[in-house]
């Protein structure tokens, strides 16, 4: 389990689900220990550059000819990729190999690194549909913060729901997603 970044400033529901998951894994015989990963903030920053530039590149033909077909939130996010230079993009790509090597050295012979996907429970679509407002990018970055390093480093990952999540409606019996 990471000692920092993925466990810093978690909402109480996420921290409780993580704690319960660790307890269950130990009951099942797993040895759980802390691992000091390289600075994940730096890895996340490099990931932002690569993701922004590559997404913008993939959408460039349509952004030039059909920009109005994109909603303001998506269009603004794609236009962020235009803010990075080729030098910045290539530097982030060149750093990927050394960053991966440092990550693999840090985890040593552990089989799995367990960490939450997000510091908070999943927001509703309404809470994240901020259109072209300046807050939109910050909201999306907060949701995806923990996923960027794994994505950038090309590491395999598996997301497993944890904790009790109500999935029913008020007019019928509620069902709950089982804890792991």
Q: Can you walk me through this structure?
A:
The protein is an all-alpha fold and 180 residues long. The model is unreliable at 169-180 (pLDDT under 50). The chain has helices spanning 12-27, 40-66, 72-80, 86-107, 125-128, 135-144, 148-153. It starts with 11 loop residues before the first helix and ends in a 27-residue tail after the last helix. The longest helix has 27 residues, at 40-66. It has one domain (12-153).
Q: What's the structural blueprint in terms of helices and strands?
A:
Elements (H helix, E strand, L loop, with lengths): L11 H16 L12 H27 L5 H9 L5 H22 L17 H4 L6 H10 L3 H6 L27
Total tally of structural domains: 1
Biggest sheet descriptor: none
Give the number of DSSP strands: 0
Report, as a whole number of angstroms, the end-to-end distance: 16 Å
Brief characterization of the structure:
This protein has 180 residues and is mainly α. It is built from seven helices and no strands.
Task: Provide the descriptors you would attach to this structure in a database record.
single chain; 7 helices; 180 residues; mainly alpha
């Amino acid at each position: 389990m990471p000692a920092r970044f993925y466990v810093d400033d978690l909402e109480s529901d996420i921290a409780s689900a993580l704690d319960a998951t660790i307890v269950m894994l130990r009951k099942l015989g797993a040895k759980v220990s802390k691992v000091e990963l390289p600075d994940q903030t730096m890895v996340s920053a490099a990931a932002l550059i690569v993701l922004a530039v590559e997404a913008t590149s993939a959408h460039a033909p349509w952004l030039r000819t059909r920009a109005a077909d994109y909603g303001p939130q998506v269009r603004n996010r794609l236009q962020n990729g235009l803010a990075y230079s080729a030098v910045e993009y290539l530097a982030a790509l060149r750093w990927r190999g050394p960053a991966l090597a440092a990550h693999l050295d840090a985890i040593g012979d552990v089989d799995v690194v367990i960490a939450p996907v997000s510091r908070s429970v999943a927001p509703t679509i309404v809470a994240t549909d901020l259109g072209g407002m300046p807050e939109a990018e910050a909201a999306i970055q907060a949701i995806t913060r923990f996923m960027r390093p794994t994505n950038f480093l090309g590491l395999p990952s598996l997301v497993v729901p944890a904790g009790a999540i109500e999935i029913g409606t008020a007019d019928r019996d509620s069902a709950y997603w089982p804890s792991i």
